[in-house]
Amino acid sequence: MNATDLQDLAPADRAFAEAARTHLRASESLNYVEAARLAATRAQVREMVSQPRRAIPAWGWVAAPAAVAAVALSVLRFEPADVSPATQPSAETLVSLSAAVNAPSPDALVWESDEAGPDFYRDLEFYQWLQSQSPSEPNA
Amino acid sequence: MSEPASSAAALDAFLAGAQSRAVRVAEIATRSRDDAMDIVQDAMLHLARSYGRRPAAEWPPLFHRIVENKIRDFQRRQTVRNRVFFWRSKATDEHDEPELESLAPDLSVPDATERLMQHEAMTQLQLAIADLPARQRQAFVLRVWDGLSTEEAAAVMGCSDGSVKTHLSRALVVLRARLDAAWSLQI
Fold first, then answer.
1. In chain B, count of helices (H) and strands (E)?
2. Residue A9 touches chain B, beta carbons under 8 Å
3. For A22-31, what is each residue's pLDDT tens digit?
4. Band of residue B95 on the pLDDT scale cut at 50, 70, 90
5. N or C, which end of chain A has less CB nearby within 10 Å?
6. Is B161 touching A (CB cutoff 8 A)?
7. What is the pLDDT of residue B112?
């Protein structure tokens, strides 16, 4: 830049500004390490800019708005489920349901035991009577 | 040459030409060479990432603005950090080992006497610029240091031409009051 760009300043200000510019521009220097650091950064910059941009595939322009619209519609159409208690069933319904539940199953297991039951005592009486009818029996 | 490759070469050339001044501007604002280097590196990557494919004519004002924004972010972080870690004195930093970069010789000024004079003047100028309010400092840097026109500086700063003139005028009044006497012995 030349000095003409400070022409709008007063002469004293312009003289001061030009002196300051001279000093400031003379101080623009980088040492070896700083120059190397900035050169490395510029290499990174070159790599960033020289890489081609990754374009969004054509189907993406359709799929993305469609997905957003689908989610928006599902949100707008959402209705909470009716959580009020159902009406009480009639007595007939309850009876029919309970009859089916309480009906004995043909496949139900029957409890069996070695304990003497009614048949045992009936058989015992018959046996004792039979013994009494046969005196040859030693235990009679 | 393909379009991205030519764009990369043009951006590289622009940054190579602007990096030294950007480091000095950031150094004066932050008073730290290391922080200035970090700021300029971040600004380079930011420019490439966000505006690398813009026309080359748009890069200078964008780079200026990015550097200025990063300087402002840095100063805000420093303010918060100084409030939180208020017990950390400056004295502890002064006893730290010097960075390797600060030991590298600066060979831009060959004559020792001239170098000493310039160093004194630069130190005073640097301190005075650093003490300016942010907008005045920005106007001074863009108009005087970078040599931008009032219109270009206004575009970078996002304000009117009149505001740039006002900020620059105030900056020059402050700087002249501080430096005229000292420079009269050295310039």
1. 9, 0
2. yes
3. 888 888 888 8
4. low
5. C
6. no
7. 65
